[in-house]
Design brief:
The protein is mostly helical. Among the domains are: 118 residues; 169 residues, no CATH class; 74 residues, 2-Layer Sandwich (Alpha-Beta Plaits), CATH 3.30.70.1350. The chain has 15 helices and eight strands. Helix 1 crosses helix 3, helix 4 crosses helix 10 and helix 4 packs across helix 15.
Length: 562
């Protein structure tokens, strides 16, 4: 009994501890965010404790009926408290369960809404994909139908072609049979012809032998005599014809050349100037000479140092002379001094300032002159880097004529002559217009203006034809070795002709005198020899200008008086 009592007291003590722990946990976790879950855990523990208490009570009642009355009051009190606490926990758990149920329902509703949207989107996507596949299927069907039609047409064409080929093959077979028959006939005719030709050859041989017997010459000797006679007759006739044609052509060519040159000169008027290295600048008064000289000559020294132009002040009234071999520099100096006189302020700093302005002005004038010249001549596509050099020729003179004017005049004359001769004038005018461009640089670069101009044009992309024309328009010089070799070859060519007695090269190889034997060479043969020598020289040698070939046939009669 005492053990049963101890067991009941222990059970009641444990139950009280659970109640106290439940109240403590409930009070400390109500204000926290995770109170609901902990209350549910406490309720479960309380339920487990209650079951345990009831089991213990049943055991105690079974074993200790005698002490039930003693513990009834305390047990009832504890049971009521536990039931009240359990009821409170159940209500809290039910409230939390209802909230969880509401949240779960909201989640289920949202999930249903999202699922409905996804289903609708998937349905739309599927419908679009079905439409696309349907369109592709229709396109494929149409393409297949078109291919079927094309295949049918191709098959029909192939059938027609096969029928045509069969017909052509039948025609070819017939033609082959006909050709075979014709070939047999031709073979028979060939055999007959061979026999006939053999008979003819035999007869011809008999006739030749008879002619040789009668004439006393072989066939080869007779043929050689005939060829020699025909060749001599042909040479004489050709020489007469050539001499007549050359005489007529020379007369007509001379008249034609005179007409072309006269026409070109008449249609182009040139302006002549006097070549000089001095410019005259007129002054408003003689007192200006002193201002130009400046104090102790500082102004004139500064002017000459900056411009590179010499100022000559003499007794000429109201005038000074500007001297410089470079015409462009002289023009810049003239403009500078002219502006200084107009401005009135003449001192070294002002001289430098006016010089720069005048230099820019002259450069602009050169560009304008070059563009005007190109427009007047009709030459286009010239590199812009060549324009300043070309424009500087406006201030350059040569042999009494302005060089830029000379280029314009030459281009016009060349164009007129090309048109008269039926040639394309564009390239010829371009070559003539640029042929003296190197004269703008002869005082800066050493060498011939033709070579300088050609190198300048090649540098800026001008065609080789134009550059070569510029380079060769003064090509009249050659080395001594080449000159000697050319003269020796000319004499060899002339001496190789039959009947030639002596050869003389005259006028530096521009004329060749050929002396022939009058007993062997007649007048017509002399004409033939002159033409053959001239033709061989043209084919083998390179030379400037032309070479005149003169064949001299001199007959002399000598008698001695006793």
């Amino acid at each position: 009994m005492q053990g049963v009592l101890y067991a009941a007291v222990a059970a009641a003590f444990v139950l009280g501890l659970f109640f106290v722990d439940s109240y403590r946990r409930r009070g400390s976790h109500r204000s926290s965010a995770g109170a609901r879950q902990r209350e549910i855990d406490s309720l479960a523990e309380i339920e487990k404790s209650e079951d345990f208490a009831q089991s213990a009570r049943r055991v105690a009642e079974a074993e200790a009926v005698s002490i039930r009355q003693l513990a009834q009051t305390e047990a009832d009190a504890h049971r009521r408290a536990a039931e009240a606490e359990a009821e409170a926990l159940r209500r809290a758990a039910q409230s939390d369960a209802a909230s969880a149920t509401s949240a779960a329902q909201a989640i289920r509703d949202q999930a249903k809404t999202d699922a409905a949207g996804l289903i609708a989107e998937a349905k739309r996507t599927a419908e679009a994909e079905v439409a696309r596949l349907t369109d592709e299927l229709r396109d494929t069907e149409r393409e297949l139908a078109t291919r079927d039609v094309r295949l049918d047409e191709t098959q029909a064409k192939l059938d027609a072609q096969a029928a045509r080929l069969e017909a052509e093959a039948a025609d070819l077979d017939r033609a082959v049979r006909q050709l075979t028959e014709r070939r047999r006939e031709l073979d028979l005719l060939d055999d007959q012809t061979t026999v006939r030709l053999a008979e003819i050859d035999e007869r011809e041989a008999n006739q030749i032998r008879e002619v040789e017997r009668v004439a006393g010459l072989t066939a080869e000797e007779a043929k050689a005599e005939l060829i020699t006679a025909v060749e001599a007759s042909a040479r004489r006739d050709a020489a007469v014809l050539v001499r007549t044609i050359e005489t007529e052509a020379r007369a007509e060519g001379t008249e034609r050349a005179r007409a072309v040159v006269a026409e070109a000169v008449q249609r182009v008027a040139s302006e002549q100037t006097t070549e000089t290295v001095v410019s005259v600048l007129h002054l408003p008064g003689d007192e200006m000479k002193g201002r130009i000289i400046g104090r102790e000559g500082r102004n004139i020294r500064a002017f000459e140092a900056v411009t590179g132009v010499n100022v000559i002040i003499d007794d000429t009234p109201e005038a000074v002379l500007l001297s410089c071999f470079d015409p462009v520099r002289r023009e810049v100096g003239r403009l500078t001094l002219e502006k200084l006189i107009v401005d009135g302020r003449i001192h070294p700093h002002r001289i430098e300032e006016i010089y720069e302005n005048s230099k820019a002005e002259v450069d602009e004038l050169c560009l304008r002159a070059a563009r005007d010249a190109l427009a007047e001549v009709g030459v286009s596509d010239l590199d812009e880097h060549l324009l300043p050099t070309l424009g500087r020729l406006k201030y350059r003179t040569s042999y009494g004529q302005n060089v830029l004017g000379h280029l314009i005049e030459t281009a016009h004359i060349a164009g007129v002559m090309a048109a008269e001769l039926g040639l394309e004038p564009t390239l010829i005018k371009r070559c003539a217009f640029l042929h003296d461009i190197g004269k703008a640089l002869t005082h800066e670069v050493e060498g011939s203006h033709a070579i300088i101009g050609a190198e300048l044009l090649r540098k800026y992309g001008e065609s080789e034809a134009v550059a070569h024309a510029v380079e060769a328009h003064h090509a009249r010089r050659e080395s001594l070795e080449t000159y000697v070799k050319r003269l020796a070859r000319i004499e060899e060519i002339a001496n190789a002709k039959p009947g030639v007695e002596k050869v003389f090269a005259m006028q530096s190889g521009r004329e060749v005198r050929v002396m022939v034997q009058p007993s062997e060479i007649d007048d017509l043969a002399a004409q033939v020899i002159a033409r053959e020598i001239a033709k061989q020289i043209e084919d083998e040698l390179t030379y400037p200008g032309q070479i005149r070939v003169t064949v001299v046939r001199e007959s002399r009669a000598t008698e001695v008086a006793h």
